[in-house]
Design goal:
By secondary structure, the protein is of the alpha/beta class. It has 20 helices and 20 strands. The N and C termini lie far apart (about 65 Å). Keywords: Methyltransferase, Transferase. It comes from Ruegeria marina.
Length: about 525
């Protein structure tokens, strides 16, 4: 009877939304893996694709890539590549043969199999902000070094929002934990606060091995089960121009040998770390990524690999990085074309150069997110919470970004472009004719609650209504929402025996010293 009464009382607009969400802080879209139904934007013609490919291959054949990793150099020699000191030159036939072994699509299965992700095809996935050393929120009002509590709170947002599909690196670096054991505490927090797909930093063998073991324990898996299918992933950056460092390649080789997924993302800023021309920057970025992917395929053919793009430009007046620019958008679209040419899934990012969650932050982030859509990206890193070119994580920005992510998801739903007889709605049009309106007719009443995207953060009241409600600007609304979400957060279930095993592993590894550092 109570349910019936609720349905009778429920109205539209915000009152209806409040009734539908019950005790939840917001009414959000359900968990889903969005399907990108649009054709990708492809600025390159066939000659352009061939020209960029030729440029990337000539970089690998004639100029070479430095690998500061002795194991990698030995493997390249074994494969017949030319190794001159740290610099490796490799023939295009070998590179293309190796890259062709990487799967076009694969899955990653976290501790909650209901959160399994499909990587590749036309699936579009979003991840949280990763790795900023600093934090900003409206209560503090200034940029501060990250802490474990702030990291935990951002992880709660990562778990809470259904439009966030994977937990990338630390959403803010908790510098109040010593670097030797930081990975142990943060991975314990990540695995207990969230049940989504996890990431490992490839920063030394101890960190990689510890994270793999913790993900295995959290999933209740044997070694064989862990290695049978990807359960986690890493993301590495080349050191542009034309270098790969020791720890990142080492971490990838360890993950590859245990069947885990690898994302290779050169970080190239045109005009500083790459040519000032976007085609040159993209060609260099591709060369830096393809050589590493070829190495991993040589070690373990068929290991899941994703090619990443992080090609933007610097401000030529100041030298500062710029993000969400027209050039950033075009480089992302071009790399998407090339990823399809190579048969690899694509990673890009949701980024901005703004310092606080203001208008600049949102238009630059929106540009970068829509470039991800247009490029056919499969994994969008830093999709929520990024500020100051990746130096600041903000919970207000996180929530504001999630509004955009939900809008992108809604944009992709078949309901927005369906053409059935019900959608064409001739009977409804006939019933209204040329002297009525559509608010009260049955066709509208049957669909009003689901017909259009309903925001959880945007305020659609007119100015007078907004002013009467307190005149609260968007970041402040997001701040209040952040506080409510954190206060009411409930962690996903975990078997108590597994939790204890995880905690015991962390304590043992701390007692052993964790990962070596020079301080």
């Amino acid at each position: 009877m109570a349910d019936t009464d609720t349905r009778k009382r429920r109205g539209g607009g915000r009152a209806g939304a409040a009734a539908r969400r019950g005790k939840a802080v917001i009414e959000q879209m359900p968990w889903r893996l969005p399907i990108n139904v649009d054709k990708p934007t492809e600025p390159l013609d066939q000659e352009g694709v061939e020209a960029i490919h030729e440029g990337a291959m000539r970089i690998l054949e004639e100029i070479g890539i430095a690998f500061y990793n002795e194991e990698a150099l030995a493997l390249f020699r074994q494969a017949g590549c030319k190794v001159d000191g740290d610099v490796v030159r490799m023939g295009r036939d070998w590179v293309m043969e190796m890259v062709a072994k990487a799967p076009r699509e694969f899955t990653i299965t976290p501790r909650n199999p209901d959160r399994t992700l499909k990587i590749g095809g036309n699936v579009l996935l979003f991840g949280n902000v990763s790795s900023p050393p600093n934090y900003w929120d409206m209560e503090i009002g200034r940029k501060v070094p990250g802490t474990r509590e702030q990291c935990q709170n951002l992880l709660k947002l990562t778990q809470y929002f259904n439009c966030i599909h994977f937990a990338g690196g630390y959403p803010v670096e908790p510098v109040d934990i010593h670097a030797s054991v930081r990975h142990l505490d943060v991975l314990y927090d990540k695995l207990t606060i969230s049940d989504k797909v996890m990431h490992a930093y490839s920063l030394g063998k101890e960190r990689v091995e510890d994270v793999m073991e913790m993900v295995r324990i959290a999933g209740g898996l044997s070694d064989e089960e862990f290695e049978a299918t990807p359960r986690m992933y890493t993301n590495i950056n080349s050191t542009s121009p034309l270098k790969h460092d020791q720890p990142m390649i080492d971490g990838c080789l360890r993950l590859a040998r245990r069947g885990q997924a690898i994302v290779v993302t050169p970080f190239t800023l045109a005009g500083a770390m790459a040519p000032v021309t976007m085609a040159g920057a993209v060609a260099q970025s591709l060369a830096e990524a393809l050589c590493a992917i070829a190495l991993f395929q040589y070690v373990r053919p068929g290991i899941p690999c994703v090619i990443g793009t992080f090609t933007s430009n610097v401000d030529m007046k100041s030298g500062a990085p710029a993000f969400g620019t027209p050039e950033y958008m075009r480089s992302t679209q071009m790399t998407g074309q090339m990823a399809r040419f190579y048969g690899l899934p694509l990673r890009s990012s949701g980024v901005c150069a703004a310092n606080v969650p203001d208008g600049q932050a949102m238009w630059e982030t929106s540009n970068s997110l829509w470039a991800a859509v247009q490029s056919g990206t499969n994994m969008v890193y830093h999709a929520a919470g990024w500020l100051e070119g990746g130096l600041i994580a903000s919970p207000e920005k996180f929530i504001m970004d999630c509004e955009i992510l939900q809008q992108i998801q809604r944009y992709m739903e078949p309901a927005t472009y369906a053409t059935t007889a019900d959608d064409i709605a001739l009977d409804a049009i006939r019933s209204v004719g040329n002297d009525g309106h559509f608010f009260g007719i049955k066709h509208t009443q049957d669909r009003y609650s689901t017909a259009f995207y309903q925001p959880f953060l945007s305020d659609w009241k007119n100015y007078e209504g907004w002013e009467a409600a307190g005149g609260i600007w968007t970041p402040e609304r997001a701040h209040h929402m952040f506080k409510e979400i954190v206060a009411s957060f409930e962690a996903p279930p975990m078997d108590e025996g597994i939790r204890e095993e995880l905690a015991a592993f962390v304590e043992r590894r701390k007692a052993e010293g964790g990962a070596p550092t020079d301080f």
